[in-house]
Q: What sequence folds into this?
């Protein structure tokens, strides 16, 4: 009996020690966290990096998007962060506020590859805090109009170029049955900040002015944009709520003739709705004062606590090379964040991707503050109250202003 | 070793585990509820400040919290009696000697309890679909007005209640069934000889003898229903117009979406107090009847 106990404790002792030993010996080991598809496929470019850096060991941990946020936050609290991580652009402010991110200005200054001028303005802004850089855009998502070319032709309309056309085209496309029931809609737009904000930006509006810290939700620009958004719903150009209907299915059967979404929808539509291949296309956002869209995607960050910052930076530089960005597009269909990559013929010769390229020049991201999630929730609630609950716009925006003020306090 | 320490030694594993995973978190979250802990504090603990009862006073003047409380009570007060009624009926049916394939039905009714909620939610979203859903299809067949179940603020909560009752009644049914089978058959025989019909023997034998079971089911179900979260979280995310926002969902939003951990802890302590009060009241009522 006693012997067994000795053996057991010896085993435990050994395992504990051997795992400790592993950690210490890996001075040249880079730990990377990446989410979803990126996490699955990042391994495919690693051999190219290893060719130049043979003595480096790279460990990639794939994290599902649904668990990523929690895992990262816990890792900050528990001090077990990797060297590099992919971060969704809208998460940047939170981790910056926690003080987890390494400032990259010094690295960029001495870099031959990374230059801030190479990036799209809206995408780069997600990395900026007080004019300092805390991340490097990896790939970009920008929302454009996806539309059914065949159905648009059938009804004799072109994709709407501006807000007025959005209404007139929408009225032609929305089909109403004899009993007054709507058979199909011109658009589908959900009550989500990613759908609402572009309208506000297109009207030169802003929820918060980050420079002056002024809440501008009651400004005439915002009000006009919300009014337009409500009008689209009230005139049944898009369904009031889109819960329960599968977007791809509805688009395939022509129940929704257009929607706004990002480049990932290209692959999804090709895979899940091959029947309508070639019958749909993409177009730029409709214009008011500008045709601003929402830009998202992911950035690469180095954590302050990393012990391999130089190597981590080297890897980020590697992923930022135009040719690797092109390679990455071939592997994942993620759109390059680096301008030079777009000069490759894959992008130049693709009429759809050209639209994304043009839209990227006029795209924005929401204010880079950790309270944004809460503010977005207020925006969502108030717009819902106007549309579903029939609340007065002025009153709703006034309430939104008060609520946002109390959040920012 | 002195024998008087021996029991504590045996209890040690349980005490250690409970302390680490239960008592310490409970105490810690109470302390947290007295601070302003948020995103800023996670990176640097210096930013944490004691605000004492400020979170709680803020809670009292937070209209969304009251809305969440109202919704949760609505769900509990309608859902619990309905769920217990359905469970009892199902148990009575299954306990009847006339029933064939008893095991088949018992398994069938219990299946929703062990099915993952996500799968159930996907199916129910289709059932509730305003245009393609079978529920509205039957309503149409019966010439009744159709309902936009999950998107109408008036109907979203009833829709959640129906689904929750359907999903959970099997569990209580099994407990009731055990309670029913513990009632000696001789009572019924005696009653039958005295000329009591089925209805009378139900009200004078079955129901009184089921009292301990019913009390247990009532308390556990109420506690469970007050913590409503997963159903609306998956089906509606608290919408439309916050009509299905529950207290736990509200706490989740503050805790894990916005990272106001101090405020979220305060919410959970208020919920704890509510559950505690309800349980005490129910126990008192139960004791009153026992006399």
A:
């Amino acid at each position: 009996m006693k012997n067994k106990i000795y053996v057991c404790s010896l085993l435990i002792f050994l395992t504990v020690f051997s795992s400790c030993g592993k950690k210490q010996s890996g001075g040249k080991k880079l730990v990377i966290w990446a989410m979803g598809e990126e996490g699955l496929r990042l391994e495919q470019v690693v051999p190219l990096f290893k060719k130049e850096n043979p003595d480096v060991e790279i460990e990639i941990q794939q994290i599902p998007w649904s668990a990523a946020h929690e895992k990262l936050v816990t890792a900050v609290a528990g001090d077990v962060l990797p060297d590099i991580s992919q971060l969704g652009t809208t998460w940047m402010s939170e981790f910056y506020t926690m003080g987890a991110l390494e400032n990259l200005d010094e690295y960029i200054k001495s870099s031959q590859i990374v230059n801030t001028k190479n990036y799209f303005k809206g995408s780069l802004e997600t990395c900026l805090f007080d004019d300092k850089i805390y991340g490097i855009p990896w790939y970009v998502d920008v929302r454009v109009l996806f539309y059914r070319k065949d159905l648009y032709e059938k009804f004799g309309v072109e994709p709407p170029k501006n807000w007025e056309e959005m209404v007139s085209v929408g009225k032609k496309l929305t089909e109403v049955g004899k009993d007054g029931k709507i058979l199909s809609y011109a658009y589908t737009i959900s009550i989500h900040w990613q759908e609402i904000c572009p309208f506000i930006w297109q009207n030169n509006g802003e929820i918060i002015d980050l420079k002056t810290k002024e809440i501008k939700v009651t400004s005439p620009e915002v009000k006009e944009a919300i009014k337009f958004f409500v009008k689209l719903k009230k005139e049944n150009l898009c369904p009031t709520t889109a819960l329960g209907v599968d977007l791809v299915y509805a688009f395939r059967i022509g129940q929704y003739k257009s929607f706004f979404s990002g480049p990932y929808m290209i692959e999804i539509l090709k895979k899940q709705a091959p029947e309508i291949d070639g019958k749909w296309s993409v177009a730029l956002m409709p214009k008011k004062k500008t045709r601003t869209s929402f830009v998202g995607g992911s950035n690469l960050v180095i954590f302050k606590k990393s012990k391999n910052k130089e190597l981590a930076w080297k890897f980020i530089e590697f992923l930022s090379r135009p040719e690797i960005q092109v390679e990455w597009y071939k592997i994942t269909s993620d759109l390059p964040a680096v301008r030079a990559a777009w000069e490759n013929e894959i992008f130049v010769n693709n009429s759809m991707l050209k639209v994304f390229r043009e839209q990227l020049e006029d795209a924005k991201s929401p204010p880079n503050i950790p309270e944004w999630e809460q503010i977005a929730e207020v925006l969502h609630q108030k717009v819902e109250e106007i549309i579903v609950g029939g609340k007065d716009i002025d009153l709703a925006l006034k309430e939104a202003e008060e609520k946002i003020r109390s959040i920012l306090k | 070793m002195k024998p008087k320490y021996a029991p504590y030694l045996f209890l040690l594993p349980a005490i250690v585990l409970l302390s680490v995973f239960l008592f310490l978190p409970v105490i810690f979250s109470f302390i947290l509820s007295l601070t302003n802990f948020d995103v800023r504090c996670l990176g640097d603990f210096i930013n944490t400040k004691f605000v004492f009862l400020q979170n709680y006073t803020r809670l009292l003047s937070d209209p969304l919290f009251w809305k969440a409380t109202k919704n949760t009570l609505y769900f509990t007060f309608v859902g619990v009696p309905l769920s217990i009624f359905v469970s009892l009926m199902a148990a009575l049916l299954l306990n009847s000697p006339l029933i064939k394939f008893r095991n088949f039905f018992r398994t069938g009714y219990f299946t929703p309890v062990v099915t993952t909620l996500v799968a159930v939610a996907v199916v129910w979203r289709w059932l509730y679909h305003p245009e393609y859903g079978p529920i509205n299809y039957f309503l149409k067949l019966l010439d009744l007005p159709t309902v936009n179940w999950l998107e109408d603020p008036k109907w979203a909560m009833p829709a959640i209640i129906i689904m929750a009752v359907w999903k959970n009644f099997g569990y209580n049914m099994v407990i009731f069934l055990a309670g029913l089978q513990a009632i000696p058959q001789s009572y019924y025989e005696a009653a039958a000889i005295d000329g009591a019909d089925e209805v009378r023997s139900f009200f004078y034998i079955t129901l009184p003898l089921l009292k301990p079971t019913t009390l247990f089911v009532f308390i556990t179900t109420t506690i469970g229903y007050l913590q409503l979260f997963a159903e609306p979280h998956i089906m509606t995310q608290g919408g439309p117009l916050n009509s299905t926002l529950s207290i736990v969902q509200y706490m989740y939003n503050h805790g894990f979406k916005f990272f106001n951990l101090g405020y979220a802890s305060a919410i959970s302590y208020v919920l704890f107090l509510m559950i505690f009060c309800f349980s005490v009241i129910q126990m008192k009522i139960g004791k009153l009847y026992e006399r």
